[in-house]
Amino acid sequence: MFKFLIADDECSEQRLLFRTIQDHWRTDADIKCANNGKAAVNLAQLWMPDIALLDIEMPGLNGLEAAKRIVASNPRTKIVFVTAYSLFEYAHEAVKLGASDYILKPIDRLEAIEAIEKVTLQVLSEHQLESLRVVPRQAEGGEGTDKQMQIIEKVMTYLKHNFMNYGLSLDSVSEILNMSPSYFSVLFKRCTGVNFIDYVTDLKIKAAQDLLRDPLRSAAEIAQMTGYESASYFTRAFKRKTGMTPTAYRSLVNKGTCES
């Protein structure tokens, strides 16, 4: 069961999101609505939703400020912004808030489902990881090999669905597992053959390569979508990994001379 909070001052858009979630997720969805940012924050603090869909342009307390307060009280809540503008207008702030995705207005049902499905996979993978949380006596190496592999396999699934989240780090994952960062780092390298940071970077760059095939997406937007705080940092990371800038890679892809 996923707990959805929808906050939008436009009743028609709020109803459309409600019906879209209700029709698609059916018995797997528990949905509550708010008509403004303040009401959304108050409800979230009591109810602790898994996913909050927040209109950015609400009067009074806007969606960005509401998201800050919701995440402060419950860091596990995933944020999806709903906006009539490209998220690029708010990209820096959205990245800092760990926005999982955004939905453009006027809302298209299929696009909304696609965005929300991505976030539900994030929630599900996190819940699966939490279910493997080790007890203190296990946390520094008491698991057997099978248990260790089970944990790392779930970690890899979690990373696949959450690599774009700004708050993702070795520390944040080890905290979910109740392991020390140093032990988790060693365990991850032992089971995968690569260190945690390189593994996450590979996921980010592979996603960026796919996104660069779309000529309408800017490097700054792709940086935001893959969890980089700035376009310049994204460009440096991309070049270190691939040997070329995102612009050069896109040019080669468009010429059909570069494989992803």
Summarize the structure.
This protein is α/β, with parallel strands linked by helices and 260 residues long. It has helices at 11-25, 37-47, 63-73, 91-96, 109-130, 145-162, 170-177, 181-192, 196-211, 219-225, 231-242, 246-254; strands spanning 2-7, 29-34, 51-55, 78-83, 101-104. Helix content is 57%, strand content 10%.
Polypeptide structure, described:
The protein has three domains: 2-124, 3-Layer(aba) Sandwich (Rossmann fold), CATH 3.40.50; 132-193, no CATH class; 199-254, Orthogonal Bundle (Arc Repressor Mutant, subunit A), CATH 1.10.10.60. It has twelve helices and five strands. It has helices at residues 11-25, 37-47, 63-73, 91-96, 109-130, 145-162, 170-177, 181-192, 196-211, 219-225, 231-242, 246-254, and strands at residues 2-7, 29-34, 51-55, 78-83, 101-104. The protein has a five-stranded parallel sheet, sandwiched between helices.
Q: Level of helix content?
A: 55-70%
| CATH class label of the largest domain | Alpha Beta
The CATH superfamily label of the largest domain reads: Response regulator
Largest sheet: 5 strands, parallel
Seen as an oligomer or otherwise, the chain set is single chain
Q: How large is the count of helical segments? A: 12
Q: How many strand elements? A: 5
Tell me, rounded to a whole number, the average pLDDT. Answer: 89
- State the shape: globular
CATH architecture of the largest domain, by name, is 3-Layer(aba) Sandwich
The tally of structural domains comes to 3
Low-confidence stretches: none
Q: How large is the radius of gyration?
A: 19 Å
The N- and C-terminal alpha carbons lie at a distance of 37 Å
**Structural class by secondary-structure content:** alpha/beta
Which band does the percent of strand residues land in? 5-15%
Would you give the CATH topology of the largest domain?
Rossmann fold
Written as H for each helix and E for each strand, in order along the chain, the element string is EHEHEHEHEHHHHHHHH
**What is the topology, as strand order, of the major beta sheet?**
2-1-3-4-5
